[in-house]
Amino acid sequence: MSDWCHNRLEITGKSALISIMEEWISGEAVPLYRHAVMRSIKLFLAGCGGLLRPVKTESFPPFPGLMQSGTGQGTPANLAFDQWLGLLRNDVPLDGEHLRKIERLYHQSGIDAIRWDSIPDVSRRHIARLIEECYADWFGIATLSREIDPGQCWERLSQLPDRAQPCDMLQIIPSRLAAELNGSGGLLSGSSTSCSLYCRQYGMEWPADHNVSWERDGVSSIKLAFDSAWFPPAAEVIAALSSTFDCEIRHWYSEPVHDLDGYDCYDRGEHVCSAEAIIDELDDGRPGLHLVPVTEPYEPEGATSVHQAAQG
Asked: 222 - beta bridge partners?
């Protein structure tokens, strides 16, 4: 891709929080939101296969197949599924409160103990069809092959990742449950796709950084460089990052193809100033960014952080 936007951040803050930020930059921070999404995919599949049934909910217009087995008895498993279905209906943000609730409901449902071979044939067929239709969205891999093993996919949903992508922005501003299940294919009628949510909320289709490099510039600062597709991260993302880690962030960005260059400074989540930027080339061929006179500041809307370690 030729339309990469080059970003450079100079970050200054408290040494302890800078160390936590370094974990986020490198992808070492555990992606708890991804755990909740995987748990929810399995609950969704279990509902479609009739393994779990809601107790009170009688319809689910975004995907009627989720209710094809009707309501069930008030068992602890079905009650947990009914509560989870309410979270999906409300498209809740994947913040700390809802991450903990999804984890609790998942374990109460008992679905983690159900192995693929023990699922009735008719249920397996429903589940397998959905896995094939949503494979690229749910497992992050596009394939031209029809050689998809639904049993392996079912088991993979219990294998939770302990690392994230570098500079994973979904850990800074929470995504939403229905959008994550919906993916890009429009599984849930009337719900936002993940792509449209990402563009609105993060300013880009892929809210993680590419070609990431950084160096710890003393105990209290980091210099970070990365590329983003077409545009820089939305102002709300950088403001939330500054708020989460209680730091000052100076952000230069440049997308040469469309002559998109600029600079913003944030301090503890507050936008301080903006400026245009002049691009030249450094001796090593990398873009160098320099400020020109300050323009009218842009005030970003507020954003909520979910990086619990930093908040602690």
From this structure: 11, 216
* Gyration radius of the chain's alpha carbons: 22
Query: How many CB atoms lie under 10 A from the CB of residue 239?
Result: 27
Q: pLDDT by residue (tens digit) across 237-260?
A: 999 999 999 999 999 998 887 777
The strands making up 248-255's β-sheet, listed across from edge to edge, are 210-216, 221-229, 4-12, 248-255, 260-267, 270-281, 287-294
Tokens representing 145 are: 């092959």
With beta carbons less than 8 A apart as the criterion, state whether 173 and 302 touch: no
Q: How far apart are CA 180 and CA 238, in angstroms?
A: 22
Contact 40, 181 (CB under 8 A): yes
30-34, 39-43, 144-148, 154-158: segment of lowest average pLDDT: 144-148
DSSP 9-34: EEEE--HHHHHHHHHHHHT-S--HHH
Quick: pLDDT tens for 286-306: 445 444 433 333 333 333 333
C-alpha dihedral, 101 to 102 to 104 to 109, nearest 10°: 140
